[in-house]
């Protein structure tokens, strides 16, 4: 049996259950209706986008800190 952290030859979506505040749920429902997409699809998109943004920001911060350290040594 393969663990969740070890993808097989094909990456497939994984179903998860989360609890969100009611206001967040309402905002998701309204936005999904306006955009004409499912609540699940919108939530997955927003989560993936947030993770990519966070990863890019963290990566940029690490590069900036490394550059600052190099400049201080020089």
From TrEMBL:
Q: Return the Basic and acidic residues bias intervals.
A: 55-74
Q: Which InterPro entries match?
A: RHH_5
Residue span, CopG-like ribbon-helix-helix domain = 15-53
> Which residue ranges are recorded for the region named Disordered?
54-74
- In Swiss-Prot or TrEMBL terms, this protein is called CopG-like ribbon-helix-helix domain-containing protein
The record lists the organism as Cyanobium gracile UHCC 0139
